[in-house]
Amino acid sequence: MKLKAKVTNKLSAKLMQFLPILKASVDELVEIAKEIEKNNPFLEVRNKKFVTISNLKNAITDEIEALSISQKTLYEDLIEQIETSNLFPTQKSKKIAYEILNDISIEGFFEGDEEEIAKRLDIDIEKVKKVRERFVYLNPPGVGAKDIKECMLFQLYNLDIKKEVFNLAKNMIEDLKNLHKYNDSKYFNEAVKIIKNLKVTPAFEYIKNDEIIPEISVLNINGELQIKLNDEYYPEINIKECDLSDEFCKRKIKEAKSLVDALELRKSTLKKIALMIVEFQYEFFIGGVIRPMRIKDLAQELEYAPSTISRAISNKYLLCNRGIIPLKSFFSIALDEEISSNQIKEEIKNIIKNEDKNRPLSDDKITEIINKKYNLNLVRRTISKYRDALGIPTSRERKKLYKVGR
After folding, report:
1. Per the confidence metrics, is the pTM higher than 0.90?
2. What is the pLDDT of residues 232-253, one digit of tens each?
3. Segments forming the whole domain that contains residue 361
4. What would the 3-class secondary structure string for 276-305 be?
């Protein structure tokens, strides 16, 4: 199956003001449109029926199995395991485990920073790492992993398989983009079979219908991949008639039409991205192994700026037979290829140099500022790592230093 998408349209200047729509999650779209409506008497915004995982799934296929929703939440289950298992025998290890738990997403991935946790608890980072490694033995398998690759490794460690198969599968997971190198191995077919059965979303069965609304569905039905854009939640936009000879009316009608254009652009951009993901990850969607992708490559193929792709995949989810997957998980998330690490470090220095000395900025806030300015998807641990490399203390430490320096 080959799906090719070539586009030449660029974001026009009149739509630049609506780029937040491209980045917005599904539940933010109506809110953004309603804000624009407040200042436009010729614009009417209506909220359509909200589409959930279950009714989207039922609307497009009967073949996909029903979601197995746990009676307990992911966090309730993990708390019980932390309290009752022998993995965290001391109060100190439990405290570290709970700090890690605070940074686990609803999909089951660890999105925190081990260094930050170590500093908050005033302990060595190696202790935090060792406690997080014990999450390997918790359920659901893969919970606490930082990304899909580590999620697969967590699950692999729990399998009762031959040592030779384990070692080969481990090497293959750590080198997914070069699987062809292992074709001649005696245990290649066994390792591939194991890798194919590993989950890519650790806590899929815990996700409630109202927690995540997938924007894209890619389902394997009788060997054919069907792609559907879940656009039924989009706000309904009505533009009222008015006298176009009036300059105010003319300007507001233009603004309303630009909103409609922005919403349509959002749909078409996501559809094109979905087509490219399916083309590149075809083997994954039919039960094979996920392949590393780069934002830069997708941007070049679609003739968009990498920053536009970063916006488009932010806060977006894909539903497939293998689970609910954040779009960003298909990509090697690192610095946008157009932005160098040195540039980000300089930005960190400038932000901290100009911060309010009474209220120093946390790494979370600095991450938010940089992501917004450069349209990136950096995580806090990346900013913390760069700040440490620059020799700049944490916000708490800076606050103390500022007071001493007065």
Report:
1. no
2. 778 888 888 888 788 888 888 8
3. 341-404
4. HHHHHCHHHHCCCCCCCECHHHHHHHHCCC
